[in-house]
Amino acid sequence: MHILLALLCVSIAAAPGCTGLPTKGESMRNTVHSIINIAKITLVHIKKLRTKLPVAPEMEVITPSIEGLTSISHDLGLLDNALQSSSTDLLSQIQADVSSLEGRVRLLAVTMDCPVAARPRGESSENLFPDSHHYLTLTQVQHYLEKFLLNKDKLKVC
After folding, report:
1. Are 105 and 72 a contacting pair, CB within 8 Å?
2. Distance CA 142, CA 56 (A)
3. Helix and strand tally (H, E) in the chain?
């Protein structure tokens, strides 16, 4: 009986600290951590996919500068559109990763009261060389995410 009463007192005393919602700061830290993890996982998915594809020719791509949440959200939206325009299941996991990443960055930007433009619209286009387009898109995503991880401190800036 005394043990049950002691357990009840301990649980009541510990409950306020255990049931509280995370603060805004904790929530933002969790979101940043999640964004970084998704970017790393996406790079693993890209590297795994590249082992299944024929060796790609060397491609040089221009990666936009990473200035803050507003530009990151916009750039990820453009990359997501490029991945969606690929009519192949090969890139579907990468597209899902980038879409999730863009959504979390957008959410973080809104939470920090950053100006966020409407999501870029996808352009439907017929590619005469779909394999080249897939390689190019994959390379663009890979280079952007590598640069993003080197500049992850920009997740604290609008």
Report:
1. yes
2. 13
3. 5, 0
pLDDT of residue 20: 63
Residue 60, token pair as written in the block:
């040089």
**Exposure string for 56-80, b = 16+ CB within 10 A, e = fewer:** eeeeeeeeeebebbbbbbbbbbbbb
Those residues whose C-beta lies under 8 Å from the C-beta of residue 98, and which sit 6 or more positions away, are 42, 76, 79, 80, 83, 141
Give the chain's residues under pLDDT 70. Answer: 1-22, 56-57, 86-88, 122-132
How is 13-82 classified by DSSP, letter by letter? HHHHHHHPPPPHHHHHHHHHHHHHHHHHHHHHHHHHHHHHSPPPPP---PPPP--SHHHHHHHHHHHHHH
The answer to whether 105 touches 76, Cβ cutoff 8 Å, is yes
Tell me the average pLDDT of the chain: 80
pLDDT at residue 6, as a whole number: 44
* pTM (2 d.p.): 0.78
